[in-house]
From TrEMBL:
Organism: SAR86 cluster bacterium
Signal peptide segment: none
Biased amino acid composition, Low complexity: 16-25
Official protein name in the record: Heme biosynthesis operon protein HemX
Region listing for Disordered, in residue ranges: 1-30
Keywords: Coiled coil, Membrane, Transmembrane, Transmembrane helix
Membrane-spanning ranges: 37-56
Coiled-coil residue spans: 58-131
Domain of life assignment: Bacteria
InterPro entries: HemX
Length: 371
């Protein structure tokens, strides 16, 4: 009995489980179907949107084409109308016009009056242009003459203050060209005076001040190595001490006299002086003598830079005097230095230069007449 009562329960449970399984299968199928529909919908949406957009573009293009066709028709109609009007105008132009009679005497009088006025204004303009040209020429001529006056003044200053012959020649040449460019007929006398001054300046030998300065500088360096008389005397004494031998008196009187002369010759050095020296050198005065010679040459250099010929000649004369008095002049070095001193002393560092007074006077008069 117990087994029979449990059988329905088991069957009921089996049926329930089968029903639940069937319902779960149907639910899964529904979910799968929904998913597939969603995927298809997502894929179809862009396609549908693209198709709709293309349809919209097609409709828009068709409307625009219709508008263009209408506009083209209007333009064709306008062109046809204009062509018709042009043909009408051409036919009207080809038709013989009817002569129109009018009185042109007033027009002729007006043309004559205008022609006379134009001729008068043309003549007045030509007069004004000629006057302007004359004014410009006069102004240019005056400026060129003033330029020449200024350049001649500069050349004179270069000569008087600096002794610069090269620059003075250059300025005078430019001044002469300016006077030539002025085109004035009154510049002949001035140009003649300038030509004379140029000839004088070109005949002057240009002084090489830099070369003279370098020669003096070379002498300054040589003064350190000159031989002084005191040095020569010391050398003679040293040689005498080295070569002297004890004096042996013999019985022969002649041999005694000869020995005495030899002894005196070994002590004294005979030298022919051009003039009597004022003082003999004391031992240790070599540096002082050389220093004084350098100072004299430096003074000559300073005078060269100052263009002071008097001071230059004094310094060179003192240098020569001291060199003759205290230095050894019979050696090769002494002769070369003596010759160089003589040549430098013979140079006039401030030569007499021509004065441009005539050129200045004439060009000043010419410039005053142009004002």
């Amino acid at each position: 009995m117990t087994e029979q009562s449990e059988t329905p329960k088991i069957l009921d449970e089996i049926s329930k489980s089968n029903a639940s399984k069937a319902s779960s299968r149907s639910t899964r199928k529904q979910q799968t179907t929904r998913r597939r529909f969603a995927v298809v919908t997502i894929i179809l949406l862009p396609i549908v949107a693209g198709v709709l957009f293309l349809a919209y573009q097609q409709i828009s293009l068709q409307s625009k084409l219709a508008e263009f066709e209408l506009e083209n028709q209007r333009l064709n109609q306008s062109l046809a109308t204009q062509s018709t009007q042009l043909r009408q105008i051409e036919r009207a132009q080809l038709a013989t016009p009817e002569p129109i009679e009018f009185d042109d005497s007033s027009v002729r009088e007006l043309e004559s009056a205008l022609s006379e006025e134009i001729d008068r204004l043309t003549a007045q303009l030509a007069d004004l242009q000629a006057a302007q040209l004359l004014t410009n020429n006069a102004t240019d001529r005056a400026w060129k003459i003033l330029e020449g006056q200024y350049l001649v003044g500069i050349a004179n200053q270069k000569l008087m203050l600096e002794g610069d012959v090269v620059t003075a020649i250059s300025q005078l040449e430019i001044a002469d060209q300016a006077l030539l460019d002025s085109g004035s007929s009154s510049v002949f006398a001035v140009r003649q005076a300038i030509a004379g001054d140029l000839q004088k300046l070109r005949n002057i030998e240009v002084l090489d001040r830099e070369g003279i300065y370098l020669r003096l500088d070379s002498l300054l360096a040589e003064m350190e190595n000159i031989d002084l008389l005191n040095t020569m005397r010391t050398e003679f004494e040293n040689r005498r001490n080295a070569e002297s031998q004890p004096l042996q008196l013999g019985s022969d009187a002649n041999s005694l006299l000869e020995s005495s002369f030899e002894f005196l010759g070994s002590i004294f050095v005979w030298r022919e002086w051009e003039e009597t020296p004022e003082a003999m050198l004391a031992p240790g005065q070599d540096d002082l003598i050389k220093q004084n010679l350098r100072l004299m040459l430096e003074q000559a250099q300073l005078a060269l830079l100052m263009r002071d010929n008097s001071l230059y000649q004094q310094a060179m004369a003192k240098s020569q005097d001291w060199f003759q008095r205290y230095a050894v002049t019979n050696s090769i070095q002494g002769q070369a230095l003596k010759t160089e001193l003589n040549q430098l002393r013979a140079i006039d560092i401030d030569p007499l230069l021509p004065v441009l007074s005539q050129s200045l006077s004439l060009i000043n008069q010419l410039a005053a007449s142009e004002r």
